[in-house]
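Something for you to look into today, if you have time. Just paste the record in under my message, thanks.
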Amino acid sequence: MGIVARLSLVATIMAAGCSGDGKGGQGANADGGGAGGRGGASVPAVFSSPLCRTPYPAQACDGDPHGKWTLAAMCVNRFESCRGAMVTPTGTATATIEFGSGSPEAYFDYQFKYDIETRISVPLSCLGGASCESIGCFGREDPCSCVLGSGRGGGIRAQWTPNVSGEVVASYSEGNRMAQLRFCAGATTADSTIGGTRVIWNRVCTENMDCRPSNPCHAGKAHCAGGAPVCEDTGSNRPVGEPCGTDKVCDATGACVACAAGANCQLPEQPCKAAIVSCRTAAPVCMATGNVADGTSCGTRRACLAGVCKSDDGEPCKLDTECRESCTCGDAQCSTRFCGRSCLCRYAPPGGACAGVLVDGTQPSGSCNKACFQGRCLTEVGQRCTVDSECGTGHCTCWTPTCAGGRLCSRPACPCQWASSGADTCSGPLMDGLMDFTCQSPKMCVQGMCK
């Protein structure tokens, strides 16, 4: 949702008031209702629509809001029904609003330019106990009298939920607060409130522009002669997934079918994912949009973390991925495991601090993808190595007489000897002339001994 300029009818041009003693206040605009007159002053038509004198909405909301509308009237007098109140607006007001298509996201664009001066004389009895300051007149007279001015222009672009009839209700950003649009479309006119200000609109009709015929899933061409636009059905289908009513979209056959695009949904077995319904194929499909907030409950003693449901500390587990931090061994033999803090090659009681070391040769997986020896994560017997210090046994031994195949961790120490994988004893002497970790130049291995 974006905003180009802040919509406001709050006074930005302050003028001297005109009370009975020549004094006046400064203030903000009074809005709502129709325009009144004062001393026979002529009120511009843009401020004097008879629709402003009826409750909102002034008509049935049975028209299609799609397309462009131009301002017909702005209702600036909320005191018209109060005896003795006089409100006389002068100036200019121009605006357009256009509702675009889209699924699940669609946008409306509101462009406006207002330059209004309003002379007010309102008895205190019209204010329900409020002071003159509540309507922007800062004097203490009765009636409250002042001249209010506002000049503002800009544009707003914000999301709306497309429909082909019924009231549009949408929120948009107005400075540092959220404001609301309510828009009730008829065939040729629309009634609305924008940020609390009531505005009346006329539909803009351009010959052959897109319109909605009786079948909202068919494309239409508008004909503008004779007042109200007439929509000709072209017989061609609108794109699949295009909205055709509240919680309805068009399918491939041109039918308007039920599908609540943008509605919240739940992905199977993914309780920590936020998701909404997509209707792009005309059939509802639940699609992930992001993660739910960390800490959201996703089961008994389980909570979400970065989009994944994790078990609480102290709960049984098999893999690190089940836990917030680690699936830690619960005893020296690692016969049980619980979620908790990471304890490399050590165990911890459920939900407790790291305690003693694991039994040598234990393969806890997780943070140690080798095996544990004396509390260190080292290579186990029979696995490849390059130096003695990598092995849990401390012995990295050639596993062929020529050492051409590399080295493996062995159980016994075999200087100038080789040992097959996992052998409990050395298998035989290395080829004469080779050097071993324990036999370095100028010495070399000869007949299984370092000479």
